[in-house]
């Protein structure tokens, strides 16, 4: 289908302000790299089904993203549609001891709402830069906490447009894993079951984790957080350091000298630089320690 014709059909589902054409994905990833998406859409929750139906009908590929905090988009961009859960779908509600958050809400926003309501359990999430939807998909976690610990239920949309609810157990949550990608679901909303806790204790824990992040992580550079999953029985950063990769760079991409588990954009990095560095780190660590590192970062789009 001609892009102009497809655009007109999109305008029947979304407002023009919600449709960006040839949109640089470098504006929407924390790595600050990535080529152009043919169509970058920012729907409200109730508009998602219409977009998925249109893409299916017209056979246009559709990729779903959140805050872009765990994403490496290729320099040649993304063909078709990028459906982004952003501020248009970011409502957060407190209902008793439960927090209900739409997929586009930031984890930090959700953790802040929990603190204000005197609800503990989401402190670990306060410094994670991702969205609720993305966090649920990968069972995000930090400092001993993960979504699995507090997630009660997820509302999602199937490819056929059916709204389904999945409990914690049905989501098959494990380390950086859920069944959502396999079932090709679009997360619309998540419910977190929390516990009453003094606000000062919640804030103290959040401040402590913020201090630890600032001291140990290269937050001053664009990155996607921890680049690799934690291998069982090891720490990725330690393995990378022992393989002599601290400060190693490819173009503008570098293994952080502050924390070797992070690959950072020191300025002007391309997605090709970052991907090449990921592969180099994997090769050197495997040769040095025999451990195969698995990227935590998801690659999307076309690479040069």
Give the topology, please:
Layout: H1 3-10, E1 19-24, E2 36-41, H2 48-58, E3 62-65, E4 71-73, E5 78-84, E6 92-95, E7 98-102, H3 107-116, E8 119-120, H4 132-138, E9 141-142, E10 145-146, H5 147-150, E11 151-157, E12 163-167, H6 180-183, E13 186-193, E14 195-196, H7 199-216, E15 223-226, H8 236-242, E16 249-250, E17 253-255, E18 262-265, H9 271-289, E19 298-300
Parallel strand pairs: 2-5, 3-5, 4-19
Antiparallel strand pairs: 1-2, 6-7, 7-13, 8-14, 9-10, 11-12, 11-13, 15-18, 16-17, 17-18
Give an overview in words.
The chain is an alpha+beta fold. The chain is 29% helix and 26% strand. A hairpin with a 2-residue loop joins strand 6 (92-95) and strand 7 (98-102). The protein starts with a helix and ends with a strand.
What fraction of the residues are assigned to beta strands by DSSP? 25-35%
Strands, total number:
19
Contiguous uncertain segments of 5+ residues? none
**Gap between N and C termini:** 25 Å
Proportion in helices: 25-40%
Overall pLDDT score = 96
Provide the succession of SSEs: HEEHEEEEEHEHEEHEEHEEHEHEEEHE
Cα gyration radius (Å) = 20 Å
Q: Which sequence of strands runs across the widest sheet?
A: 6-7-13-11-12
Shape: globular
Largest sheet entry: 5 strands, antiparallel
């Amino acid at each position: 289908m001609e892009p102009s014709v497809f655009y007109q059909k999109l305008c029947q589902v979304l407002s023009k302000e919600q449709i960006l054409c040839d949109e640089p994905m470098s504006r929407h990833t924390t790595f600050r790299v990535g080529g152009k998406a043919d169509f970058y859409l920012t729907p409200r929750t109730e508009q998602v089904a219409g977009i998925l139906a249109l893409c299916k009908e017209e056979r246009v590929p559709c990729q779903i993203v959140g805050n872009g905090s765990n994403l490496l988009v290729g320099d040649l961009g993304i063909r078709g549609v990028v459906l982004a859960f952003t501020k248009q779908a970011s409502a957060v509600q407190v209902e008793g001891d439960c927090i209900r958050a739409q997929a586009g809400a930031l984890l930090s926003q959700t953790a802040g709402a929990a603190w204000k309501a005197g609800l503990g359990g989401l402190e670990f999430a306060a410094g994670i830069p991702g969205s609720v939807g993305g966090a649920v998909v990968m069972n995000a976690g930090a400092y001993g906490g993960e979504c699995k610990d507090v997630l009660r239920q997820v509302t999602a949309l199937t490819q056929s447009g059916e709204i389904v609810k999945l409990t914690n157990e049905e989501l098959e949550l494990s380390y950086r894993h859920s069944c959502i990608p396999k079932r090709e679901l679009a997360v619309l909303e998540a419910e977190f079951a929390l516990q009453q806790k003094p606000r000062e204790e919640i804030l103290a824990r959040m401040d402590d984790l913020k201090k630890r992040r600032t001291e140990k992580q290269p937050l001053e550079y664009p990155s996607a957080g921890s680049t690799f999953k934690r291998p069982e029985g090891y720490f990725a950063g330690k393995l990378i350091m022992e393989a002599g990769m601290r400060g190693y760079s490819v173009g503008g991409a570098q293994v952080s000298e502050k924390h070797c588990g992070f690959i950072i954009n020191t300025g002007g990095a391309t997605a090709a630089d970052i991907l090449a560095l990921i592969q180099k780190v994997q090769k050197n660590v495997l040769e040095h320690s025999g451990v195969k590192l698995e990227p935590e970062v998801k690659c999307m789009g076309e690479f040069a």
